[in-house]
Amino acid sequence: MSRLWLGLLIMQLALVVHSAEPDWAEGFSVPLEGRSNPYQVDPQELDEVVRRGRIHMLNWPVEITGVVLPYHPIKKMLDERDSNPIRRLFQSLFRGISGLRSFDQVMEWLGLHEFPETEDVFPFPEGFRPEYRMGMGLIERHGAEGFTFSCASCHAADLFGTKVLGLSNRFPLANDFFVKGSAALRTVPEFGIRLFTDSTDAEVEMLTMAKDRIQHIEAKAPIQLGLDTSLAQVALSLSKRNQDAYASFNEGLARNPRHDRLRRRVADSKPAVWWTLKYKNKFLLDGSVVSGNPIFTNLLWNEIGRGTDLRELEDWLVQNTEIVRELTTAVFTSEAPSITDFFPAEHFDLESAKRGEVLFQQTCAECHGQYKKNWSLPGAENMSLAQQLKTFEVQYFQDTPISDVGTDPYRYWGMESLEQLNNLEISKKNGILIRQQTGYVPPPLNGIWARWPYMHNNSMPTLCDVLLPKAERQVTYWAGPPKNKQTDFDLDCNGYPSGAAVPSAWKQNRDYYFDTRRIGMKNIGHDVGIFVRNGRSIFSDQDRRDLIRFLQTL
Questions:
Q1: Which residues of 413-447 are buried (b: 16+ CB within 10 A; e: fewer)?
Q2: Tens digit of pLDDT for each residue in 48-65?
Q3: What are the residues facing 269 on neighbouring strands?
Q4: What are residue 476's DSSP bridge partners?
Q5: How confident is the model at residue 228 (pLDDT cuts 50, 70, 90)?
Q6: Alpha carbons within 13 A on the beta-carbon side of 247
Q7: Is 493 in contact with 473 (CB distance < 8 Å)?
């Protein structure tokens, strides 16, 4: 009887666990208001689950990841002022950053932001030290401390001095680091690291493994600062592996990889924000992930791009379902920053925003969803202006739409190379399905004000450009870090300042210069058939101002 009772209890527990598992199947109907708690975590536990998930965002949790570099030896090489020949060689291999004189400067070059001074915004990882930056993940292996990159390297930003987790990093260079780091690792000998940095056996072993795994990685530098090539790195790294169920390593292919179009074709895009995921059942900017937990999928992609053994990864994921649950919950509970947290509500004309809402309903809502405003509630006149400007409900679509509105196609064309992921056993076991699309997801627009520059390829520096016909958009612009909201941001057009207003410091860095005439970076589409009809814009200048005021409140 006791065995029967135990068996029934186990079955009941299994049913409870299964009932809490989110539906990631293709075509799953998403609630209109989204699902910010996909695992249905008990409200009393939710804050703690989110806290742990944010730590995973900041410190890469996959400790079996392929490439981990010994932290202390490399930091010593970069920080010390001496004639160390290995140090000079190591820096010289990083063409373009050889003038950097410390580990922290390298991390800053990579676009990694400093942590906030307190844990008010998000928690510090265990063992946190002040010199760490957001996105520099630390992993201990056999007593040695190594570093790699975490989610925050691409999905954390500094917005006018405020750190925002889940906002796209405007200047990520993690993929470029792999390009330069691959050359450095292949050239720097283990004995040199041991000789000039007093490395431990465990640290040398870590470096040796990194040198072995880096040969199964092919990285590609982005065509423009602000874009990244993670898509290309995954596909090209797979071209160096066997085409079996676990993409096993192949020394011959590591030297002579298979042909892949992405070796020459551009498919760059910006990192996406996190707070829109809760409204979708198709993921990535083009909606090509049509099935499977998108966070699980991201872990898989990252590990292929880090030279990880997929059998080891499969075992790790089975043993660490709680980490996937925590990380997914933290991402899906993300909220967009409100513009009134940065600018006084008095900057915004309520009547103009209301007129913009009418224009939005007429021209934008069909693709981008509905946004219910406090100003429409009974008794709104008794609210403060800041309260009236807020959105109390976002209603997106139960089935995520994909539209081709004429924007640059190179990014979604590139997904042809990623469909090979469907053949992996780890994808089949976890319901991951990639399908190349024609077009992009018209995203939910909550927090749109903070997401400049616009489009998947950053080709439109302001909302004014988004709402203008192609012929009237800026062809080139300067993109710098948004440190000062008075000088680094055009509040009227919502985006980068232009003309004489461009900060002179930005023009000292040619990497900040964006030219939309380059392949893959065109500022085409999103005009004809939307607000350009019979060859003319349906919007007046005042209409555009009103519509931007409305969009800024979302």
A1: bbbbbbebbeebebbeebebbbbebebbbbbbbbb
A2: 999 999 999 999 999 999
A3: 228
A4: 515
A5: confident
A6: 33
A7: no
Separation in Å, CA 242 to CA 71, 152, 311, 432: 31, 31, 13, 20
* Residue owning tokens 């050239």: 187
pTM of the predicted model over 0.90: yes
Quick check: bond before 453 cis, omega within 30? yes
User: Among 431, 429, 432, 434, which Cα is nearest to 318's?
Assistant: 429
Q: Which of 294, 336, 267, 534 is nearest to 430 (CA)?
A: 294
> What three-state secondary structure class fits 229?
coil
For range 342-349, the mean pLDDT: 95
Per-domain residue ranges for the chain? 58-272, 339-389+459-552
User: What pLDDT is stored for residue 8 in this prediction?
Assistant: 41
Q: Indicate the average pLDDT of the chain.
A: 91
Q: How far is CA 210 from CA 85, 130, 146, 203, 406, in A?
A: 21, 26, 10, 11, 42
Q: Provide CB contacts within 8 A for 424, sequence distance 6+.
A: 245, 246, 247, 300, 310
Distances (CA, A) of 371 to 23, 25, 80, 357, 414: 25, 27, 54, 9, 32
Indicate the pLDDT class of residue 150, thresholds 50, 70 and 90.
very high
Residue 541: its H or E element = helix 541-552
Residue 73 corresponds to which tokens in the numbers above? 């030896």
Strand partners, 69: 147
Measuring CA to CA, how many Å separate 502 from each of 160, 421, 482, 485, 509? 16, 43, 12, 13, 12
Q: What is the DSSP string of 295-325?
A: HHHHHHHHHHTTT--HHHHHHHHHHTHHHHH
Residue 343: pLDDT band with limits 50, 70, 90: very high
Specify the residue for token string 């186990």.
10
Return the residue matching tokens 């021209």: 363
Say how far apart CA 334 and CA 36 lie, in whole Å. Answer: 8
The mean pLDDT of 306-310, rounded to a whole number, is 97
